[in-house]
Amino acid sequence: DWEQRQEEDTLLIERMLLLVRNVLHVPADPTEEQGVDGDASLHDRVLWALHLSGLDDLLKFLASCPAEQQWALHVLEIISLMFRDQSPEELAALGQGQAAAEHREDTRELAALRQRELAERRGRALQRPSRHSRFGGSYVLQGLKAIGDRDVVFHKGLHNLKSYSHDLGKEPRRVPRRRQAA
């Protein structure tokens, strides 16, 4: 935290940011690199190494954290040097082209999955009978006696078992109006 930092820590952070800035500030020399077309330049390889080390995430944190505003100009300069060789049109086209290709691929995969799911659903519909059986089954309730010494046979679904009573299905006795409780 910035409250717990010593003066040496602050100097070390500033020196590290200046080192990264100076490394990115080195101009590209195409005659020295002698790379083939499409090969990553030295600048791109440095950026990739910074990404692999996690320094780009640290720079994003320093840029977005309100407590670290003292490093904002250093971070801004480093970010501008990261995008030094790219034109805005190339960056925008690169992002859209890749996003459009990924979107088309995702759409194609989703369509194939949808077709497979519909085929499975049709196959299941053909396998089951079209007429619904209303027979829910019969169950013997052990330990609950019916008339005589036999166990109760329950003809409803098991989800109705909690509301079972011996009076289930019987007509309630009608009480005359004048004898009804108020």
TrEMBL record:
It holds the Pfam family TIMELESS. Keywords: Cell cycle, Nucleus. Its main location: nucleus. GO terms for cellular component: replication fork protection complex. Residues 1-140 form the Timeless N-terminal domain. It is found in: Nucleus. Transmembrane segments: none annotated. GO terms for biological process: DNA repair; DNA replication checkpoint signaling; replication fork arrest. InterPro entries: Timeless, Timeless_N. GO terms for molecular function: DNA binding. PANTHER family: PROTEIN TIMELESS HOMOLOG, TIMEOUT/TIMELESS-2. This is TIM protein.
